[in-house]
Amino acid sequence: METETEFGTTIVGLVADGRVVLASDRRASVGGMVSSKRAEKVFPVGDRAALAFTGVVGDAQALVPKLESEVRLYETRRGRRLSVPALATLTRNVMGEDPVRVQHLLAGVDADGPHLYSFDAGGAALEQPYAADGSGGPTAYGVLENGYDAELELADARAVAADAVAAASERDLASGNGLNVAVVADGDVSVDRYDDPAAVAS
Length: 202
Fold this sequence. Notes:
Layout: E1 11-16, E2 19-25, E3 28-30, E4 33-36, E5 42-44, E6 49-55, H1 57-78, H2 84-97, E7 102-110, E8 113-119, E9 125-127, E10 130-133, H3 137-147, H4 154-171, E11 179-185, E12 188-194
Antiparallel strand pairs: 1-2, 1-10, 2-11, 3-4, 5-6, 6-7, 7-8, 8-9, 11-12
């Protein structure tokens, strides 16, 4: 994740086995210098959604609590859970009202199943089975295109996500130093951290 406006990093997501896998590298850089080798780029939003970020660290850290506050307010007033499509709309609206210098993927699971959203430069939320973003995104997309299958089991989906981040880290100077892998389910968001992407498949 960058501390400037250039979105240098790699984030990926894919829907599999009733859940959503998000992965990112762990390198943060400013200019040509690596400022951190343990950057957190995947953040839970409540107990059944998460955001993976590329962009300005402070903006990313500010967006998550804002979304969580809005979700709690909605659910307290309405007495029901906020759906993931509604959370995607909320995210788009919050970013439109107070622009933040990030690109991100939103993953979540609700009563209708798993969802993965990317957000384009115009602010549109696009639901898709897999996605990548950041400076390593083009390379990661190649791995996702080759490895994704709608019938993937969770372990295989985690391995594909790890391979995508690893491939991007080989080609993109702003990506590297291992990876974070999150699994988003209905009622649980778990995040594992690895120094070596190969460990995900072991």
